[in-house]
Structure formats: C-alpha cells, structure tokens
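pls design
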C-alpha cells in the first residue's frame, strides 16, 4: 500500500496516463476522416484531369493497358500540350504510370498491389502501436499515408496503372549542372498525382512526430508507472 501511494505521489502531475490510439474513438475518427477526405480528393482530381486536360475526355481502358508493353503505355494517351497553371511552378500533363511513385518498377503491377496493401496495414499498425489518443497530427499524417496508398491501389486495380497529371517545377533545373540518373536536369522530372503528394507529406509528418516523441510506443492505461529514484 505504501509503495502504491509513493508511486502515485511521484507521478502526480508528471506521469499522465497515455491511452493508445486504437482505444480512442476520437483518434479513429481523425484517422478515418483524413483517410476518406484525402482519398476522395485524389480520385476526384484524377477524374477531373483525365476529363479536361487533354481537351477531350481520356478514357483509360484496363484491358488495353494490360495488353500494352509498359514502355509504350503512354501511347494510349492522346498527344497534348501541358496545361500551364503557374509558369515554372505547376503544369498539368496526363501520364499513365505502370510502376510506383517516381515511375519506379514499371510492369510490376501485382508486386505493387501487394506491397501497397502491406504498407497500408503497416501504417494502421503504427497508428495503434506508436501513437496515443492525443497525437492528432500523427493520426492525420497516417490517414494521408493510407489515403495515398489506397488512391493508387484503386487505380492499379481499376485501370491496370496509375493516372498521373501533376508536374511541379517544370523547366526548373538542378544547380551546378547536376542530373538525375535518367539524365534529366529538372528539379522534379516526374509527373505525379495527389496520392503521391499525400504519401510524401504524410511520411514526412509522421517521421517528424516519431522523432519528437523519441519513437516511444503508446502505453496502455494499466501499464506500470515509471519508478522514481526515491522509490524503494
């Protein structure tokens, strides 16, 4: 009894009970809200871009995509001029991507389907194991990561490829004559989509959260409180 009283006194105001996120309704609500909203924005912007950017709607047929070699997949997109939103800041151009973000691994559709599903499950595990009920920024970040994975997973299952249309920093070159391995001198030579942006931003926010928190896992309400140096 005396030890319990001493522990309670030592932790009074200094050792608040941390509730893991998976046991918190508001935490799940934040995760699901960010997931649903971000996924809806990704799919809606892809639909809008492929309906308007080329001057006429571009319909992506899954059977034709799967029958086309990855190197020629963009022959299925009509030739069109990029739509300049802000010069040297953002252009819109339709591209079909048979690989992953940055065009990595073209032609490995099923690998990326399985990998994406696993990554989504891992992100949900991080939500439950590494965040607590009050880590709202982390919950929103995980929702963004899952939404990015789900948005591109939807494209791979529905169309056999990922629909891309965002080209940031077009014509802006790397300094000192530097080049990417593909020979491009542009700062950002890839055409991507909202899902890719969600993945990158969400991962950055989550890593920042884990760094600030010291990577500690969420404790359960009945976890023993830390012993102070004064405890026997």
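designed seq:
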């Amino acid at each position: 009894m005396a030890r319990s009283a001493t522990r309670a006194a030592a932790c009074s105001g200094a050792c608040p009970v941390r509730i893991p996120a998976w046991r918190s309704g508001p935490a799940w609500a934040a995760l699901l809200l960010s997931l649903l909203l971000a996924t809806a924005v990704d799919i809606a912007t892809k639909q809008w871009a492929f309906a308007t950017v080329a001057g006429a709607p571009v319909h992506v047929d899954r059977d034709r995509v799967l029958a086309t070699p990855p190197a020629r997949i963009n022959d299925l997109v009509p030739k069109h001029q990029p739509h300049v939103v802000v010069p040297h800041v953002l252009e819109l151009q339709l591209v079909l991507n048979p690989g992953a973000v940055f065009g990595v691994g073209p032609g490995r559709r099923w690998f990326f389907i399985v990998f994406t599903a696993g990554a989504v499950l891992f992100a949900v595990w991080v939500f439950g194991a590494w965040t607590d009920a009050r880590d709202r920024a982390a919950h929103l970040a995980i929702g963004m990561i899952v939404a990015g994975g789900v948005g591109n997973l939807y494209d791979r299952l529905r169309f056999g490829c990922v629909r891309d249309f965002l080209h940031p920093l077009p014509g802006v070159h790397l300094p000192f004559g530097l080049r990417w391995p593909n020979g491009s001198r542009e700062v950002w030579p890839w055409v991507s989509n909202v899902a890719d942006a969600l993945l990158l931003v969400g991962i950055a926010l989550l890593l920042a959260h884990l760094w600030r928190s010291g990577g500690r896992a969420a404790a359960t309400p009945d976890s023993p409180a830390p012993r102070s140096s004064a405890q026997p």
